[in-house]
Amino acid sequence: MDIINRANTKPFTTKDGSEIRELLAYRNSAIRNQSLAEATIAVGTSTQEHYHPKSEEIYYILSGTGRMKIEGELREVGLLDAIAIPPGMRHKIWNTGAEPLVLLCCCAPGYENDDTVMVE
Question: For the chain, what percent of residues have pLDDT higher than 70?
């Protein structure tokens, strides 16, 4: 049984500029076909626009407010919003609030820097 507590994970910065804590993935558990991470976007910042050729992604907002862009469409997002990001779709998220924007990121297949293509 794999149980990973957030406190036992180390943050790192992904290619898109967000701070990530990988909670479950093949690197630290028996999970093989997806990954779960917590991302933090600091106040006044954003990720860089990018896409994943192979992975589909789900963002789930835990705290804060932001603006999500997927293939040119912009929407305001906030607490408890779930956002579907199909493979190949360019996306970016901004923190538009006064506190860190914290979200869960689920990727299938699991997140890899090699599956991240930067477009800005």
Answer: 100
Q: What is the pLDDT of residues 39-51, one digit of tens each?
A: 999 999 999 999 9
Question: Counting every residue, how long is the chain?
Answer: 120
CA 93 to chain centre: 9
Helical H segments across 1-120, by residue range: none
Q: What is the pTM of this model?
A: 0.94
Asked if residue 55 lies in contact with residue 116, where contact means CB atoms within 8 angstroms, the answer is: no
Compute the Cα dihedral for 17, 18, 19, 23 and give only its sign: negative
Dihedral over Cα of 116, 108, 5, 100: its sign: positive
Structural domains in the chain, CATH included, are: 20-118 (2.60.120.10)
**Token pair belonging to 82:** 């779930």
Residues 6 or more apart whose CB falls under 8 angstroms from that of 76 comprise 65, 66, 67, 68, 96
